[in-house]
Amino acid sequence: MILVITIQDVIAKRKEHSRRVDTKKIMKVYNYAVLHHGEQRRNSR
Amino acid sequence: MENNAEIHGEPYIVHPLNVAYILADIGLDDDTICAALLHDVVEDTDVTNEDLQKEFGNEIAEMVAGVTKLGKMQFESVEEQQVENYRKMFLAMGKDIRVILIKLADRLHNMRTLKFLKRDRQIANAKETMELYAPLANRLGVYSLKWELEDLAFKYLYPEEYHEIVEGINKKRDERLKFIEKIMADIRVGLKKQRIDAEVTGRAKHLYSIYRKMQRDNKTLDQIYDLFALRIIVNSIKDCYAALGVVHEMYTPMPGRFKDYIAVPKPNMYQSIHTTLLGDKGTPFEVQIRTWDMHRVAEYGIAAHWAYKEASYFGKKKSVKVEDDKLAWLRETLEWQKDMQDPQEFLNTLKTELFEDEVYVFTPKGAIKVLPRGATSIDFAYSIHEEIGNHTVGCKINSKMMPLITPLNNGDIVEIITSDNSKGPSRDWLKFVKSTKAKNKIQSWFKKAQRTENIEKGKDLIDKELKRIGFSHSDLFKSEYIDPMLEKYKYKNLDEMYAAVGFGGNSAVKVIARMLQEYRKDHKEEDLEKTIEELAKSKPRKSKPSSSGVIVKGIDNCLVKLSKCCNPLPGDEIVGYITKGRGVSVHRKDCVNVKNLLTDENRIIDVEWYDESKSLYQADIDVSANDRKGLLMDVLKAVGTTKANILGVNTRTSKERIATIELTLEVENLEDLQKAQRAIEKVDSVYDVRRKK
Fold it and tell me: pTM for this one?
């Protein structure tokens, strides 16, 4: 069984180390990456 | 977290998410997390780096660019003995430590999902991980990444050995766990009695570490006693040593198995006390003792610094004490600012060029050459072999024909083109090479290959100098004058001296000057006074100018010659030198030969220009330019717009397309010459105009 990481997990982990996390910025970047990677799949490289 | 997702064929975003998570886990900042999320966007989509700059700013965009650049490096072709250089090149190209950390996290996630690749790719990736990434993680002290990278690489490189160890450990697991848990419980009691606040945990030795130990010490798995071990984490250094005292009292320490990395930390900042003890029935087990601060650094290495700086800046009490000067390997290149308050300022100090004095380039076969910063393909050629350097006629950099003098950049692939018909190196190369080896080899070539020519040339130069100062060969070339000169310059014989003068390794002026030194010991000042008297005899005491336009103070109508070595002009500051039998020789005060002449103060005489002289004088200038069609015509036209007259022209163009035009001009004075020079400087592609000294 493989655990899948979500952006919320990333932000939560970040917050374990710092009280001041720019959640908005991270979400903006994440959405940008999702948009541009689009339908790409992670196949063999 | 969501469960049960398929990895193969999963949405691509899963990978950057995992990379970002790994970096968040080791405490890196928001910008690094963002760069991790974007790290494949430029390479795999239509997004450009400029787009990222506009959207998210320079910081994030530069990190993404750095990761992209590192991703293009080809490790597979690197030979074994080159690997350390490759690591350095990797760091040098990374520029920002956070780029390296993103790359490490990227590699870690790729290794975690390597099973979906074909076997040959698995092996290639695993090899690169074991030889490049894991050692880098180790150097940076990020053990939490290092051990997992190693173990995963081990799994794919040595699958049989890996599974053997996994099975062997699993067999013993229950037995060992029972053993360790009992010891842990006993130690907790012991520490509590001494009022030491501590956390006691078990830890498993990593698989590749076990394998390495078995290979190194020629042991079987059964003989490795610290497969499982303990870790005691306390609040202070004082408590570390107190805890050590407790465990040493409870159990017998094994001799020779004690290491204090707190007192003497490892270069990558690692600090702990290691001790091996004997439990029931003499079964050994290892104990590590450290503080919470040290634990964080041990796990996260250089990344631990972020947590400290951010924590202290935002007022959170989380005292991660990182001794800045412990990172010996990077110490010379990174500037740790201990008193820095602003984490942003601190982060900026990490953006520094590592190994900035060197440049790392590849041969076509993937060997790495380390050269001085600014080195050219000529340096590269000589770094491979002297004969290659001597027969170089051209080069390709990254498959493109480029001038030989092009400075090389990190990661360039350089190919040298040679020819058997090559006439050898050019003297111009000495102006461009940066490495000592190249300089020495080029000079050596000129010295050896043209020895006969150099000897003849040297003899000629010596004769000219003798003539200039009014001495004959037989005056000076006596053994009592020759021997001290040969000794001074360490020449074995006269031919060696002539050859050195001929190829430019020494000057005729210096050589003669040394011989003159001995000569003058034998010949006192009477000659000089006699000469001056003769010059002054039967002349009216009024100074009149010579035909050269120069007045010799106190002496009239003596022979005055303008020296050909510097061609003084009215307007130049001048000095006179009384020669033997050839009157007064007039030099410019900045003439290269004047220094030697000034050593003999008695022969120096004041001279000055006669203001009303209308003579014309010769001056030589060198014009340097990037060669082009019509260059010479334009230069001559430019001179034509001034009062200068052209007496002679000589041109040559080097292999690197640098044109040198030697002009002999006729002018009335220095001002006219300078006007001509300024006119030439304005000509397109001319970059230097110099008067010959």
Answer: 0.53
